[in-house]
Amino acid sequence: MASDKAIGMMDNAYFVGRKEILDWINDTLDLSTAKIEDTCSGAIACQLIDAHFPGKVPMQKVQWDARNDYEYVNNYKVLQSCFSRLKIDKSPDVDKLIRGKYQDNLEFMQWCKAFCQQHQMAEGYDPLERRSRGKGGDRVPTRGAGGGSGGGAPAKRAAPKASRTRTTKPAAKTDAKAPAQRDAAMPPPPATEKENRQVSRSNAAANPKADAALSKKCEKLETEKSELAVTVESLEKERDFYYDKLREIEIKLQQQQEEVGDATDEQSIGKKAMMDEIFGILYATTDEFVAVDEEGEPVDSAPELTAPSPSHRAVIEA
Q1: Phi-psi region at 62: left, alpha or beta (left = phi > 0; alpha = psi -120 to 50)
Q2: At CA 121, angle to CA 118 and CA 127, rounded to 5?
């Protein structure tokens, strides 16, 4: 079974650059992949695992000409099934990968590279023959002459050097200064994995205080957020509790009002006056509200409360 050494998000594997990843994919599988986003179908990931664990991936089920999301998902199902058989503790986030976003697919390819480098590539592995078993695999572009032979990975890695030699010969016949100009125009060679690792370590060591301060600030904000959520929940419960009480009082008063009706006796008139006053308090707006002391006298001078109009009461009841 595969030895799946843990590869965390802070592992050096996730500091490997785009060009190094693409070169590794193309050298290993004899491909001409130009963009990280082109790996979103899952077919390349399937063959990378097949190259290191031959016979474990059913390549005939891999769709190299996939164009739709459901076809991409099928490839990832093949990959996940292989992970399960090999007891590899990795679950690709398929929903993100099939969108073809650069960052998501870069991180997954960085993981694939780190994982595959923990294992030996199969001796004499023929990427063209294995790829041709899948749907559309025989039509996938290769790196060109020298990279399409059925030999192992070392022969394919020598292909870029041969192509550079072919491109420099015509220039030598036309202009003696061309090699020097070409060398000056060529970009510097990409940083090696070891150099990238050294840079990442130096950057991580340069700002330990800043990282600690940010972590502390994040923890503080999370604590405040939790406290605010508890406070809001408590206030909402209290609001609902008092609203329900007021609603019960309103219903009781409406029942009493119907019972009194248009009665003109002294007792009924007193009840109606009391109910009108209570209704006035219940339906008063902010501008109409009057605070009273223990004796029932207004604390501040303000207009007297009046019973709500029928239209006002209808709106409240609705």
Answers
A1: beta
A2: 135
pLDDT tens digits, one per residue of 76-116: 999 999 999 999 999 999 999 999 999 999 999 999 999 99
165: number of CA atoms within 13 Å, CB side?
7
Kindly report, residue by residue over 17-63, the tens digit of the pLDDT: 999 999 999 999 999 999 999 999 999 999 999 999 998 999 999 99
Ramachandran assignment for 120, one of left (phi > 0), alpha (psi -120 to 50 degrees), beta (any other) = beta
Cα–Cα distance for residue pair 295/276, rounded to 1 Å: 19
Report the C-alpha gap between 218 and 305 in whole angstroms. Answer: 51
β partners of residue 135: 63
Cα angle 248-249-250, degrees, rounded to a multiple of 5: 90
> Bridge-partner residues for 298, per DSSP?
292
Structure tokens at 289: 């509200």
Task: Give the integer Cα–Cα distance in Å for 289 and 305.
Answer: 7
Tell me how many helices (H) and strands (E) the chain has.
13, 0
CA distances from 161 to 80, 145, 146, 147 (A): 36, 12, 10, 11
Partners of 292 in the β-ladder: 298
Q: Give bridge partners of residue 82 from the DSSP assignment.
A: none
What is the value of pTM for the model shown? 0.46
DSSP single-letter state for residue 121? P
Q: Which of 23-37, 127-141, 188-202, 252-266 has the lowest mean pLDDT?
A: 188-202
DSSP letter (8 states) at residue 68: S
Q: What is the DSSP string of 167-189?
A: HHHHHHHH-TTHHHHHHHHSPPP
Q: Which helix (H) or strand (E) holds 317?
A: helix 310-317
